[in-house]
Amino acid sequence: MFQHLIERPLAIGVLAERLGVTQQAASKSVTDLERRGYLVRRPDPGDARARLVDLTDRGRGVVTAARRHRAAIEGEVIAALGAERVEAARLLPADVLTHLGADAPLRIRRAKPPR
Questions:
Q1: Is 8 exposed, middle or buried (0-12, 13-18, 19+ CB in 10 A)?
Q2: Do residues 43 and 29 touch, judged by C-beta distance below 8 A?
Q3: 3-state secondary structure 5-69
Q4: Mean pLDDT, 10 residues at a time, over the chain (115 residues)?
Q5: What is the pLDDT of residue 114?
C-alpha cells in the first residue's frame, strides 16, 4: 500500500483497484495502518464528499528506512559477490518475465502475490 501513496494521496477506490482487492478490504487495511500512525485520511480538496489516503511522517519514515536498509543489504551483497554478478542476478528474473510476457503488471506495480 505504501508504494502507491509515495507520490500522492489516493482515494480508497483507487487504492483498492491498484492492490487488486475490494474497497472494503482496502478500507480495512487503511484503518489498521491509520490506527498505527502510518496513514491519514484527509478531505479531497477537489471533492468535499471524498477523502484521500496519505502517508504520515511516520509512514514516510518507514519508506525511507526500508530504502536505506535495502541499499545497505545491496552494498553488502555487492561487496561479497561483485557488482557484475549482483546485476546479472537482478536482471535475470526481469528478463524471464519479459520473455514470458508477464512483465507488464510488475512495471506498473500491480503484481498480485502468489497464491
A1: exposed
A2: no
A3: HCCCCEEHHHHHHHHCCCHHHHHHHHHHHHHCCCEEEEEECCEEEEEEEEECHHHHHHHHHHHHH
A4: 94 92 96 98 89 96 95 97 95 90 71 49
A5: 47
Distance CA 78, CA 74 (A): 6
Q: Which residues contact 58 (CB under 8 A, 6 or more apart)?
A: 37, 38
pLDDT at 107 (0 to 100)? 67
For the record, the C-alpha cell of 21 comes out as 482487492
The pTM of the full predicted model, rounded to 2 decimals, is: 0.75
Q: Are the beta carbons of 11 and 18 closer than 8 angstroms?
A: no
Report how far apart, in Å, the C-alpha atoms of 50 and of each of 6, 45, 80, 99, 108 are: 20, 9, 50, 42, 25
What's the CA gap between 11 and 52, in Å, rounded? 5
